[in-house]
């Protein structure tokens, strides 16, 4: 088989529009060559390019209408905000444009309107809705817990008064069908959570009626010396719970650091509770973890609170 004819230099470095290729003298047959793929109608990419999320956006940039921005799941992934599912090549690209302009209609693209009412920023040279706006736009699509995890990530990244901005976004969406869910999620969002699993662990604890922990705060010895930064900390009861992901297990150096830190915490009189993914996803492990925390946190004979949602808190 003969090698494919070389493309003009301007088209060789990344995705390009079919119209631009034809205008540059590339034949229709060459545009259909086996070394090219069509991530979107009217766009070609080189087949040897990794078909990942950013490659899809680079292709979309070739045909994204002026005045539009990425929104919803696409904006969340562009900003590396946590979503419950990994990106899939079949996932559409979400674009939002002004209400007074026609929707972008293209296979593989979902078009939204109302960009003039949304906050924007630029990531990697690409326009997208800002974190608070993206959070609100996804409220109808996500479960309550997933929305809380996303909100925790939003306020962790934002400066100034991030939770106040999130609440202001909720109140600006008074006519939105998902505003009730936004309010419920915002009431559970906290500053300090470092991962979705930490968020889920906290929600399990609060809903079981146990005292709400401080998040990612210093664990100190009797002299005030720093021992660790605990994921979930109950200072009054000297209990610290930490979430260990797989990297803690497979990274030997990290594992050794974890063991030394854990021993120092225990020697200083704290009780250490290790959490894993099963601690928040497997019903048997959930019950076991909550039972242990109940023994550690609730003095014998004291009634538990009713749990549930808490008010907005910064």
H/E element sequence: EHHEEHEHEEEEHHHHHEEEHHEHH
E-strand count? 12
* SS content category: alpha+beta
Shape call: elongated
Enumerate the strands of the largest sheet in spatial order, edge to edge or round the barrel: 9-10-11-12
How many H/I helical runs? 13
Uncertain runs with pLDDT below 50, 5 residues or more? none
Helix percentage range: 25-40%
Gyration radius, rounded: 25 Å
Instruction: Give the end-to-end Cα distance, rounded to a whole number of Å.
Output: 65 Å
Task: Classify the beta-strand content into a percent band.
Answer: 15-25%
Largest sheet: 4 strands, mixed
The mean pLDDT is: 90
Provide a brief overview of the structure.
The protein has 314 residues and is an alpha+beta fold. The protein has helices spanning 18-23, 28-31, 53-60, 72-78, 131-137, 144-157, 162-172, 179-186, 196-207, 246-250, 252-267, 277-281, 283-297, and strands spanning 16-17, 36-37, 43-46, 69-70, 93-97, 109-113, 120-123, 126-129, 214-220, 226-234, 239-243, 271-275.
Account of the 3D structure:
It contains 13 helices and twelve strands. The protein has 314 residues and is an alpha+beta fold. The strands form four sheets. It has a four-stranded mixed beta sheet. Strands 1-3-2 form a three-stranded antiparallel beta sheet. A hairpin with a 5-residue loop joins strand 2 (36-37) and strand 3. Helix 4 packs antiparallel against helix 5. The chain is elongated. The relative contact order is 0.08. The mean pLDDT is 90.
């Amino acid at each position: 088989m003969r090698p494919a004819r070389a493309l003009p230099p301007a088209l060789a470095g990344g995705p390009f529009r079919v119209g631009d290729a034809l205008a540059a003298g590339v034949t229709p047959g060459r545009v259909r060559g086996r070394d090219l793929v069509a991530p979107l109608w009217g766009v070609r990419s080189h087949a040897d390019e990794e078909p990942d999320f950013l490659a899809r956006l680079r292709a979309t940039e070739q045909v994204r209408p002026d005045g539009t921005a990425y929104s919803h799941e696409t904006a969340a992934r562009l900003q590396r905000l946590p979503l419950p599912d990994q990106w899939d090549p079949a996932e559409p690209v979400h674009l939002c444009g002004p209400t007074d302009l026609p929707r972008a209609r293209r296979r593989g693209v979902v078009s939204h309107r109302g960009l003039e009412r949304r906050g924007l920023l630029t990531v990697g040279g690409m326009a997208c809705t800002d974190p608070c706006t993206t959070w609100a736009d996804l409220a109808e699509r996500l479960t309550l817990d997933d929305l809380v995890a996303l909100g925790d990530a939003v306020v962790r990244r934002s400066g100034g008064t991030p939770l106040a901005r999130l609440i202001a976004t909720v109140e600006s969406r008074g006519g939105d069908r998902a505003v009730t869910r936004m309010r419920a999620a915002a009431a559970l969002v906290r500053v300090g959570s470092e991962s979705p699993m930490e968020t889920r662990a906290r929600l399990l604890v609060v809903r079981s009626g146990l005292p709400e922990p401080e998040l990612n705060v210093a664990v100190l010895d009797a002299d005030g010396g720093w021992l660790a930064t605990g994921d979930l900390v109950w200072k009054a009861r000297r209990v610290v719970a930490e979430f260990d992901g797989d990297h803690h297990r497979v990274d030997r150096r990290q594992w050794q650091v974890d063991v030394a830190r854990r021993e120092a915490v225990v020697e200083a009189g704290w009780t250490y509770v290790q959490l894993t993914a099963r601690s928040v996803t497997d019903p048997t492990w959930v019950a076991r973890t909550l039972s242990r925390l109940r023994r550690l946190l609730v003095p014998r004979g004291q009634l538990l609170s009713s749990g549930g949602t808490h008010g907005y808190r910064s």
